[in-house]
Amino acid sequence: MSIRYVSLAVLAAILCAVSAHAETARVITKENAIREQCRFFAPVKAMVRYNDQLETTEQSGDWFKVTFKGLEGCIHKTAIDRKNISLSGVKGTEKHSASEAEVSLAGKGFSPQVEGSFREKNPGLNFGLVDEVEKLSVAEMELKGFMESGGLRLP
Amino acid sequence: MKKLSLTLFLVPFVLLAGCAESIKVLASAPEYIDTAVNVAGKLSKAIKPIADEEEYYIGRAVAAKILSSYNLLQDPALTGYVNLVGRTVALRSERPFLYGGYHFAVLDTSEINAFACPGGIIFITRGMLEIASGEDELAAVLAHEIAHVNHYDGIASIKSARWTAVLTAVGSSAAKQYGSEEVSQLAAIFDGAIDDVVKTLVVKGYSRSKEYAADEAGRMYLAKAGYDPAALKEFLNNFIRKGKSTEGGILKTHPATAERIDKLMANKLTAEKPDTALVAFRTGRFLAALNPSR
To answer: Is B229 helix (H, G, I), strand (E, B) or coil?
Structure first.
């Protein structure tokens, strides 16, 4: 009887260990930073780009502790997607119709290719101006200084 | 007994070999259960049926359409300042990071308005800037627009039939590149989706409930950032005091100003009283950015 309990305890411990195991996540912003601490403006350890794969080890508020190319650091939860990204590779899913997640994860409905076609059909639209707007960047230290000088709270 | 020992010995190996994959499958199980129900119906109810990347491309096209009706103000100093205020607020929103990030620009028109394109491009008109009496009020206007982006209000204005059409066009394919026929179909759907958003932003406006929700969320962002959470109310009061016309611009697409003030008054937010010296400093830099010759 006691062996039974021991075996159940071992099983539970292993399941816990496995569930706490690192999960893969992918970066969903064009660019982002892995930071030394889990807060905005913390020193940057590495830059990551869209679709880079990270290992998440722990959640700390709105941040995840992650490993990327052997470096450990933090990334904000809104910069990554922790869903299983290889849906088509999971057995038994081939015959399902597309789910929201599949559409979302595939992320292919409206893509650069589709924008290209849209632009060809709408030559009057000036995407160059949109690019100009997107080029406006604010340096992190400038933003921090702006907040501090204005008596605003640093996040 | 021997059998049990062997089982105990083998359990870790079996689990370690198979658990990771099983847990992946289990974790995604609800999604597969969901697929059994009517996808189109579900998508129509979904707030966000698309990825951030797609939201970004929709936003770019919406911005291009808006820029076909308005000129971009060519004032790098003022635009830079508006970006500093906007990004300060955006960091306090539910989505501080978007696929393409937040970008703020000024439209060169006396019309009083602001537009939040899905994906993070936010326009404010010169007329709107001139109504604001200080940085906190500008932050309030931008906070309201950031809330629309965070709430996916633009995306939600796209007709649900278009999502069904996307599904029909792409199926469950995860291919990166499509054939010309699929691209053509998707571009036509994309065109329709952009029109839906632009019509809502420029002509119809969002529902009252969405506007009030954006007011409330914006106020929270302001409070978290250290701006005066009452600044939106002050801005709206200013608007009335300055006797601006009730035709066109923001008043065409937003609930009556007095109603918004009443709502904001009704939902009191406990926040520290703003430091008047700091507010004055921020107002000074706002005025300097708006009119550098002062």
So the answer is: coil
Instruction: Summarize pLDDT for B129-184 with one digit per residue, the tens.
Output: 999 999 999 999 999 999 999 999 999 998 888 888 887 877 655 555 677 788 88
pLDDT band at B279 (very low <50, low <70, confident <90, very high): very high
Report all structural domains of chain A as residue ranges with CATH numbers, in order of start.
22-109 (2.30.30.40), 111-155 (no CATH)
Residues 6+ apart with CB under 8 A from B262: none
| SS3 of residue B37 by DSSP | coil
- The helix (H) or strand (E) run that includes residue A34 is strand A31-35
Q: Which residue of B has its CA nearest to A20?
A: B20
Which residue on chain B is closest to A111 by alpha carbon? B54
Q: To the nearest whole angstrom, how far is the Cα of B238 from the nearest Cα of chain A?
A: 22
DSSP B38: -
Asked if residue A35 lies in contact with residue A47, where contact means CB atoms within 8 angstroms, the answer is no
Say which residues have a Cβ less than 8 Å from residue B22's Cβ, sequence separation at least 6. none
pLDDT in tens, B199-222: 999 988 899 899 999 999 999 999
Phi-psi region of A133 (alpha: psi -120 to 50; beta: other; left: phi over 0): alpha
| Least confident stretch, A96-110, A113-127, B15-29, B175-189 | B15-29
In a domain, B184, yes or no: no
- E strand or H helix that includes residue B58: helix B52-66
Each residue's pLDDT tens digit, B27-81: 333 332 233 223 333 433 444 567 899 999 999 999 999 999 999 999 999 999 9
Work out the percent of chain B whose per-residue pLDDT is above 90.
52
How many domains does chain B divide into?
1
Which residues 22-61 of chain B have a CB within 8 Å of chain A? 23-25, 27-28, 31-32, 34-36, 39, 42-43, 46, 48-54, 57-58, 60-61
User: Contact A6/B8, CB-based, under 8 Å?
Assistant: yes
Is residue B236 in a domain?
yes
Answering whether pTM is above 0.90, one says no
Q: Residue A33 belongs to what H/E stretch?
A: strand A31-35
Evaluate whether residue B218 is within a structural domain: yes
- Rounded alpha-carbon distances, angstroms, from residue B149 to A136, B3, B116, B210: 19, 60, 6, 11
Environment class of A135 (CB within 10 Å of its CB; exposed 0-12, middle 13-18, buried 19+)? exposed
Domain extent, residue B135, equals 52-156+202-290
